[in-house]
Design goal:
Layout lengths: L1 H26 L4 H4 L13 H13 L25 H25 L1 H4 L3 H21 L7 H9 L2 H16 L2 H31 L2
């Protein structure tokens, strides 16, 4: 039950990640996500049958050492953004920042749990939520298309490099979920041994242990 509750909260963390993209895009002048009905806490418009149910379910049932999953990307039109220089970066970073905020909220509950008298099961859920949201934030900030970090990187690159990098992004988006799976495997097997220590450090800073 503790595991299932943790998974449900993590799914909502992914949904909040996507809503944050759409909210910031709408704030910057692009109503695409709002018109598509994606600025809602109702999980149904956000769930991807493959990325939100099938693949995570198979990995969980087979006892995989890692879980990957995703919600439907929130649509937005970068040409509608008021700030053409930094707009895409702001939209891109909104999702990871939301996950970090969730991690801080549940991490503070853990930090002060001694005086709150909370049950061990609830604290176990909090640990799952904090760690999973930190993983979501750091993973999505990797500057490889189609992850959010690629939008941040493209915004700070010189114009010629940004154009070339944009072509790489377009080609990765054309692969659909297969592109995301490829990037996930690269991140898990090549980058995560280095990034996991950073996640653990952030966890300790927030939780206090």
């Amino acid at each position: 039950m503790e595991f299932l509750i943790g998974i449900v909260i993590v799914i909502f963390s992914i949904i909040l990640h996507e809503i944050a993209h759409g909210f910031v895009a709408n704030w910057l002048g692009d109503p695409t996500a709002r018109y598509a009905g994606r600025l809602t806490l109702n999980p149904l418009p956000h769930i991807d049958p493959v990325g939100s149910i099938l693949i995570p379910g198979i990995l969980a049932l087979t006892g995989s050492s890692f879980l990957i999953g995703w919600a439907k990307p929130v649509p937005y039109n970068p040409y509608n953004l008021k700030n053409q220089r930094w707009g895409e970066a702001m939209v891109g970073v909104a999702g990871p920042l939301t996950n970090i905020l969730i991690a801080i909220i549940f991490g503070l509950i853990l930090r002060f749990s001694g005086s709150l008298g909370l049950s061990g099961a609830f604290l176990g859920v909090c640990v799952t939520v904090v760690y999973a949201n930190l993983v979501l934030a750091i993973y999505n900030l990797i500057p490889i298309p189609p992850l959010d970090g690629s939008k941040v990187l493209r915004s700070i690159l010189p114009s010629k490099l940004a154009i070339a990098y944009g072509r790489l992004e377009t080609s990765m988006y054309a692969l659909g979920p297969f592109g995301l799976i490829m990037v996930s495997l690269v991140a898990i097997y090549l980058l995560w041994p280095y990034l996991s220590g950073f996640v653990q450090t952030l966890f300790s800073l927030i939780v206090g242990t």
